[in-house]
Design a protein that fits this description.
The complex is a heterodimer of chains A (427) and B (370).
Chain A: H1 2-15, E1 23-24, E2 27-29, H2 36-57, E3 65-66, E4 69-71, H3 76-87, H4 99-112, E5 116-117, E6 135-136, H5 142-156, E7 165-171, H6 174-190, E8 193-199, H7 207-216, E9 220-224, H8 228-239, E10 247-249, H9 256-260, E11 270-273, H10 283-292, H11 307-330, H12 337-345, E12 348-349, H13 351-356, E13 366-367, E14 379-385, E15 390-398, H14 402-419
Parallel strand pairs in A: 1-3, 2-4, 5-6, 7-8, 7-9, 9-10, 10-11
Antiparallel strand pairs in A: 11-14, 12-13, 14-15
Helix pairs in contact in A: 2-10, 2-11, 3-4, 5-6, 11-12
Chain B: H1 13-16, H2 23-43, H3 46-72, H4 80-96, E1 99-102, E2 105-109, H5 115-134, H6 142-162, E3 175-176, E4 181-182, E5 185-186, H7 194-216, H8 219-229, H9 231-236, H10 241-268, E6 270-271, H11 273-276, H12 279-292, H13 297-321, H14 326-347, H15 351-365
Antiparallel strand pairs in B: 1-2, 3-6, 4-5
Helix pairs in contact in B: 2-7, 3-7, 3-8, 3-10, 3-12, 3-13, 4-5, 4-6, 4-10, 5-10, 7-10, 8-10, 12-13, 13-14, 13-15
Classes of the chains: A alpha/beta (427), B mainly alpha (370).
């Protein structure tokens, strides 16, 4: 008890941190733990973009930005602790980069009137802004991913997948289970056979799963993995000589970390994406000049241009643009979280806007609205070249099965609304 | 000077048998209770409750439960995470109305239980499951029993991941607690006020500790300790090992179930079984019990406080005060917590509770040690 009171006093003192005059973009990062390989580049990209904005433009609309970090270790309990401790600092938007933490924070952020952006992860039905007022998952979500992969395969097979076998290797968690429903529906629609192959956390041991795949001989394998599970799966696929070009990962299974370990054998492995890959964008010159050369790069500074770094950068760019939009709407430069939410809801990304930011063709053009918090769900496909050690975009950002996904979103979100007595917004 | 019993006369059996026979100790206990009930709820904010107090109270209940099994009855268990999951999922099913299906048809649906009774039901269901997994303890001991309970851990997590009925067929396999109130005050859900969540958990913690204390110093507790110290001798003097071991499993699981239910419903609000109730949770609670002190009620609290607060304090000191990078602090945290565990086990194998006992003894004689 004495321990408790003493430490409580210290912690309480710390929690009451002063209110800063900056625009605060908290980063719930994970640079440790089994998923650190994915967490580090994302956190670096997120931080570097804001550092660059501060140095180049003097912040957003003349107000400097700050990115306080809190280590979650991909652990939901720590995520909650981080959220509560950063809340006092006036965070504008939270990006937990973890589906588990997202589920905790959806009700909390809504009650606290703080927006949350779960870009390409989290609860898919949060796309329905009428129910999930404070959660955004533009530009694409898990179900877009599943449908995007099937659409890509349809295009490869001349529009017909009848009689084909498609297996889903997934992380046996909330995240990995997300696409099952969509793929089941799609298998009925397109007449392919669908098989589920779960892999338990953290996924270092997948011998039996790939033995099953070897026995079943699916034509294609789709993977929803994260962390070390990806590398192991790619290696195992190589071991059973599964043709890599028939192996498609979702965007969380498509970074350099996942394929480098398998070496040459990973050549031809494909992954979905909703943003550009590589360093061939003008914005990277600015980052080099204002961040790296100035010695202000986050982390070790060795991740620049990797897939997940780009994703962190993209998330930061979307957050910064939403903040700009919010500043325009409300006519104030020092916006609060509630105004930030309005900015996110009115966000419109156009090709011209991205080109002006030094990111031409980096992501799809989309528009967020009160009803649609998920954008248009355009999904591209990248392929790994093991010799050059680069990812290249092999298909344009293409539309997904909007009709099916919208009906699934409506179903799931209305169930959530009924469970929690939520009145639809946007009247 | 402190803790003197000189002049502290006890004239009845009742006074002689009370938990805190020394007056100073008793008043200190009342003071802590008073502060916890009448002062803390009025000064807490979201951060204190969600980052420190709720995890402390909830883990304290889990540690109490495990301490009964490991510390008092001597049965090693690594299934705590799995049993917490049973508590959480039963609580969820009862608070959303248990649906019974037969042959693809909905047979009937129980009405939704109040959150208070849902938590209790979480405890009861876990007690039943605990007895079931306690059966092997009649035949196997020590490390072998640890392995058997480890099997329970993996089986239960697999079960809750596999059978969609447990998570009401939600797409993601997550369970999330809907808004529920007690006497019109919200207990679960995002709009819960910090003091309400705190008071709800505090109530369960106090009652659990009270029950645990009185069970362990009564006939049941003495039987458990007899089994722990030497099971053959215990059997010879008339302790029924079947009943003693199974009641220990039952009571222990009941508390662990309560803590799992609170952990899910009040503290986190949404859980995923593999992530929240994995093997690391079993180890965490076991560490709490070992560091706090085996076979001690106070030790359960001390162990929970130690392992809940230490990471937060280290984070606050490292990141907020010293401004170190978050990853270095996270790594240091592992190093420091690990080192402290080893130091503790070497310097004081009986845990924080023993330190406290020694301190009390010293304080009694202070300032004249001879």
């Amino acid at each position: 008890m004495k321990y408790k009171l003493g430490t409580m006093a210290i912690a309480g003192l710390m929690a009451a941190s002063p209110v800063m005059a900056d625009l605060v973009f908290p980063s719930l990062s994970y640079r440790t733990g089994p998923y650190a390989a994915g967490g580090i580049p994302f956190a670096d990209g997120y931080a570097d973009y804001f550092t660059m904005l501060n140095a180049r433009d003097g912040g957003i609309g003349g107000v400097m930005t700050s990115v306080p970090e809190c280590e979650t270790g991909y652990n939901t309990e720590k995520g909650v602790e981080c959220y509560e401790s950063l809340k006092g600092g006036g965070g504008l938007v939270y990006q937990p980069l973890s589906t588990g933490i997202t589920y905790q924070l959806i009700p909390k952020t809504t009650a606290d009137d703080i927006p949350m952006h779960t870009m390409g992860y989290g609860r898919t039905s949060a796309k329905n802004g009428e129910v999930f007022t404070h959660t955004f998952n533009y530009p694409a979500n898990y179900w877009d991913g599943a449908s995007g992969a099937i659409n890509y395969l349809l295009a490869e097979n001349g529009g017909d997948l009848k009689g084909k076998k498609i297996a889903l290797v997934y992380h046996n968690s909330a995240y990995g289970k997300e696409p099952i429903r969509t793929l089941t529906e799609l298998s009925e629609k397109h007449g392919f056979e669908f098989k589920e192959v779960p892999v338990d956390h953290p996924g270092q041991e997948q011998k039996s799963q790939w033995l099953q795949i070897r026995r079943d001989k699916p034509d294609y394998v789709i993977m929803y993995g994260w962390g070390v599970m990806n590398q192991v799966a790619v290696q195992e696929a190589a071991n059973i000589r599964f043709p890599m070009e028939n192996f498609i990962g979702v965007w969380w299974s498509g970074s350099e970390n996942d394929v480098l370990a398998a070496g040459e054998a990973a050549d031809g492995y494909k992954a979905l994406t909703f943003h550009g890959v590589g360093k061939d964008f003008p914005v990277f010159d600015d980052i080099q000049k204002h961040v790296v050369d100035a010695g202000k790069a986050a982390g070790a500074g060795d991740q620049i241009g990797t897939v997940l770094y780009n994703r962190g950068l993209y998330a930061a760019m979307l957050a910064a643009e939403a903040a700009k939009t919010a500043q325009e709407i409300h006519g104030v430069t020092e916006i609060n979280a509630s105004q930030m939410r309005d900015g996110m809801e009115a966000l419109e990304m156009t090709e011209e806007k991205m080109a002006a930011l030094g990111l031409p063709n980096f992501g799809p053009a989309f528009k967020v609205s009160c009803q649609n918090h998920g954008g248009d769900g355009l999904v591209g496909v990248t392929q790994w070249d093991a010799k050059a050690k680069t990812w290249t975009l092999v298909s344009d950002f293409a539309a997904t099965d909007k009709e099916l996904i919208d009906s699934l979103v409506a179903e799931d979100s209305s169930a959530y609304a009924a469970e929690n007595n939520i009145e639809p917004a946007c009247q | 000077m402190f803790y003197r019993e000189a002049g502290d006369f006890r004239t009845t059996y009742k006074e002689d048998q009370q938990t805190f026979p020394i007056k100073f100790d008793r008043y200190r206990y009342y003071l802590v209770l008073f502060l916890a009930i009448f002062v803390v709820p009025f000064i807490v904010n979201d951060y204190w409750v969600n980052s420190l107090l709720l995890p402390f109270l909830i883990y304290a209940i889990a540690a109490l439960g495990l301490n009964i099994l490991v510390g008092y009855c001597g049965q090693v268990s690594l299934g705590t995470g799995g049993f917490m999951a049973v508590g959480a999922y039963s609580c969820y099913k009862f608070m959303t109305g248990v649906d019974i299906w037969w042959g693809g048809e909905l047979l009937f649906r129980l009405p939704e239980f109040n959150i208070f009774f849902s938590v209790i039901m979480g405890g009861i269901m876990t007690a039943l499951v605990g007895v079931l997994f306690g059966l092997p303890s009649l035949r196997i001991k020590g490390f072998y029993l640890a392995v058997a309970t480890l099997a329970a851990q993996f089986f239960l997590v697999w079960l809750f991941n596999r059978v969609a009925w447990f998570y009401n067929y939600s797409a993601s396999g997550q369970i999330s607690a809907p808004e529920r109130d007690l006497f019109g005050v919200l207990i679960t859900g995002p709009s819960t006020t910090p003091w309400a969540a705190y008071m709800f958990c505090l109530f369960f913690t106090i009652v659990s500790a009270y029950i645990a204390r009185n069970l362990t110093r009564g006939a049941a507790g003495r039987k458990w300790m007899a089994i722990r110290d030497m099971d053959i001798a215990a059997e010879i003097i008339g302790v029924n090992p079947l009943r003693a071991k199974l009641t220990a499993f039952m009571v222990s699981s009941f508390f662990i179930g309560i803590s799992g239910a609170l952990f899910f419903a009040v503290y986190l609000g949404a859980v995923e079984v593999g992530e929240a109730f994995g093997i690391q949770k079993s180890f965490l609670v076991l560490f709490m019990v070992i560091i706090g002190g085996l076979g001690s009620i106070f030790g359960s609290f001390a162990g929970a406080a130690f392992l809940v607060l230490l990471p937060v304090v280290l984070k606050v000191v490292g990141v907020d005060l010293l401004g170190w990078p978050t990853d270095i602090v996270a790594h240091l945290q592992l190093v420091i917590v690990g080192a402290l565990i080893i130091i503790f086990l070497i310097a004081e194998p009986h845990g924080i509770a023993q330190l406290w006992r020694v301190a009390k003894e010293k304080l009694r004689l202070w300032p004249f040690p001879h």
